[in-house]
């Protein structure tokens, strides 16, 4: 399992660590209108999953804005999700205030389905740790980054390059 800290303290990640070459695990999370979202909903597209602890923090805000900006150069065959345990209503409010329109915010608050399937659920905090996953059009994982310190930024350039390599 990936080793992660949160504010320099070790935390326990629950679920299965995902590795490059794995078939992407399925999940059920919620869109901002409370409708379910699964892996199948974006079937045939390249997916970037940007996982954050909470949109209402500085690094998570910056991460979501960075991938929103990158979306313009990635084309229509790419779907970018920001996954957190924030309530769908809070995500929708945040997106409106931040002008986020190319990234879909989705909530794992109800079942922690994504968190456990991708090994990003922090047991002690009931938050998701910071991570990035790229999944190709055939549901194969092609890029994985579990950020070692959950309050640090991910490697944006590497994640975006991984998406561009598939496009």
UniProtKB/TrEMBL annotation:
Every Thioredoxin domain range: 18-167
InterPro entries: Redoxin, Thioredoxin-like_sf, Thioredoxin_domain, TPX, Tpx_CS, Tpx_Peroxidase_subfamily
Entry keyword set: Antioxidant, Disulfide bond, Oxidoreductase, Peroxidase, Redox-active center
Keyword Disulfide bond on entry: yes
GO molecular function per UniProt: peroxidase activity
Signal peptide annotation: none
Catalytic activity, as annotated: a hydroperoxide + [thioredoxin]-dithiol = an alcohol + [thioredoxin]-disulfide + H2O
The organism's place on the tree of life at top rank: Bacteria
The keyword Disulfide bond appears for this protein: yes
The EC number(s) this enzyme carries: 1.11.1.24
Residues at the catalytic site: 60 (cysteine sulfenic acid (-soh) intermediate)
Assembly behavior: Homodimer.
Role description: Thiol-specific peroxidase that catalyzes the reduction of hydrogen peroxide and organic hydroperoxides to water and alcohols, respectively. Plays a role in cell protection against oxidative stress by detoxifying peroxides.
Family: Belongs to the peroxiredoxin family. Tpx subfamily.
Name used for this protein in its record: Thiol peroxidase
Record gene name: tpx
């Amino acid at each position: 399992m990936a080793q992660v800290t949160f504010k320099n303290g070790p935390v326990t990640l629950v679920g299965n660590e995902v590795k490059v070459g794995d078939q992407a695990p399925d999940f059920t999370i919620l869109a901002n209108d409370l409708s379910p979202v699964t892996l199948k909903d974006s079937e045939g597209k390249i997916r970037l999953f940007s996982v954050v602890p909470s949109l209402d923090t500085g690094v998570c805000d910056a991460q979501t804005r960075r991938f929103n900006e990158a979306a313009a150069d990635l084309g229509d065959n790419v779907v970018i999700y920001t996954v957190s345990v924030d309530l769908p209503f809070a995500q929708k409010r945040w997106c409106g205030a931040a002008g986020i329109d190319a990234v879909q915010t989705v909530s794992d608050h109800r079942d922690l389905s994504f968190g456990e399937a991708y090994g990003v659920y922090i047991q002690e905090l009931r938050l998701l740790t910071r991570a990035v996953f790229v999944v190709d059009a055939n549901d194969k994982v092609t890029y994985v980054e579990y950020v070692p310190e959950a309050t640090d930024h991910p490697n944006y350039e590497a994640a975006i390059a991984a998406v561009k390599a598939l496009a």
